[in-house]
Specification:
Layout lengths: L1 E6 L4 E8 L3 E9 L1 H5 L6 H22 L9 E7 L3 H18 L3 E5 H7 L12 E6 L4 E8 L2 E7 L5 H11 L6 H9 L24 H12 L8 H27 L3 E5 L6 H14 L2 E3 L11 H12 L35
Helix pairs in contact: 2-3, 4-10, 5-6, 5-7, 5-8, 6-8, 7-8, 8-9
Bound molecules: 5'-O-[(R)-(carboxyoxy)(hydroxy)phosphoryl]adenosine and zinc ion.
Zinc ion binds next to helix 4.
């Protein structure tokens, strides 16, 4: 079985080819960062239009790099949600059309399931069950993962996601989009402890997060009379430390509460060096194993969509002919591969 996967949920157009026996044969990606930068964030309509331009050439490139032709492809996986609806529809339409033309099954993939399964691409994949800390631009949650498709929500954010907190505070500091990596870079020049921002929800039991208060704290700091712009790096350091401390503390609490000793960290914020260093140190102290996707598979990519799609196609799952895209799609509504095998729509006569 060889799967072609398409990801287009936000501002990355990506295509990958994954072979069941030989592993990942190709993954290619076009980032729209330059397109959206002047607007300070993703413009959904521009994102969708650019996916239309990029995806077909990326499919060709991925097949070439994989040393494959369309005849080698036995299934197609595509991100059906959650995400920007126009952007999702471009990938979903292309994926469904290719599957119809090539006469192979297609399966829709939940974007967050892709993130959660990305560490399975690494040499030493995490065992099940494990605790997953999923930290992306749109979501921040802790889940008990018993297996593929078995996600029990342990806690999530009440307001902003961790990535959103990075992005919004970066904007307040005048940093360009995308703010997360820019803020992380500036933070390396800041002095630790110069700003002590709140670590919300740490003093309370439970596994929920809340990051929206950070925006207010940072806004007050930078708008304070006499704020010296030279201290922006100190503020960045303080913001990053507050986010990292909170994520580490809650992840450890989730491991305690579930009595598990394996932690998976996934999603764009998983690329953050300070988070990786802090979690590695805390885990070593506790005898806990942390599994990460490699940095390029933390942020959006199609390789992770291929992993989730392959697991589902191999179990006989396939989606109907309808082009499915969902802006909202709860992770906990998923079931294990093959558990709800749908009969494909009948082909038109
Ligand atoms: O998973 P992802 O690529 O897209 C979503 O599904 O949301 O995550 C993107 C988020 C953005 O908020 C971005 O600023 C953040 O991940 N991010 C980072 C870093 N790299 C990406 N945040 C902090 N440090 C980084 N190095
Ligand atoms: Zn993502």
């Amino acid at each position: 079985m060889r799967v072609l996967a398409i990801e287009s949920s936000c501002d990355e157009s990506a295509v990958a080819v994954l072979d069941r026996g030989r592993g990942l044969l190709a993954h290619v990606l076009f980032s729209q960062v330059d397109l959206h930068r002047i607007y300070g964030g993703v413009v959904p309509e521009l994102a969708a239009r650019d996916h239309v331009r990029r995806l077909v050439p990326l499919v060709r490139e991925a097949l070439d790099r994989a040393g494959s032709t369309r005849r080698d492809i036995t299934g197609i996986a595509y991100t059906a949600g959650p995400g920007l609806i126009g952007a999702l529809l471009t990938g979903a339409s292309l994926a469904r059309s290719l599957a119809y033309a090539w006469d192979v099954p297609a399966v829709n993939v939940h974007h967050l399931e892709g993130h959660l399964l990305a560490p399975l691409l690494e040499e030493d994949p995490p065992p099940f069950p494990h605790v997953a800390l999923l930290v992306s631009g749109g979501h921040t949650l802790l889940a008990l993962v018993r297996g593929v498709g078995e996600y029990q929500l342990l806690g999530e954010t009440r307001d902003d996601a961790a990535g959103e907190a990075f992005d919004k505070t970066a904007k307040l500091l005048g940093l360009p989009y995308p703010g997360g990596p820019e803020l992380a870079r500036l933070a390396t020049e800041g002095r630790a402890g110069a700003y002590d921002f709140p670590r919300p929800m740490l003093d309370r039991p439970g596994l929920e997060f809340s990051f929206s208060g950070l925006k207010t704290a940072v806004s007050l700091a930078v708008k304070a009379p006499g704020f010296d712009p030279a201290r922006r790096a100190d503020v960045a350091q303080g913001v990053q430390a507050a986010i990292v401390d909170t994520l580490v503390a809650k992840a450890l609490r989730a491991l305690d509460e579930t009595a598990l000793d394996t932690l998976v960290v996934a999603g764009g914020v998983g690329a953050n060096r300070a988070l990786r260093t802090a979690l590695a140190a805390a885990a070593a102290q506790r005898g806990v194993r942390v599994h990460w996707p490699r940095i390029e598979f933390c942020t959006d990519n199609a390789a992770m969509i291929a992993v989730a799609g392959l697991a589902r196609l191999a179990a006989g799952e396939q989606s109907g002919l309808a082009i499915e895209a969902r802006a909202q799609w709860p992770l906990t509504s998923l079931v294990p591969p093959g558990a709800a095998v749908q009969a494909p729509d009948p082909l038109p006569a």
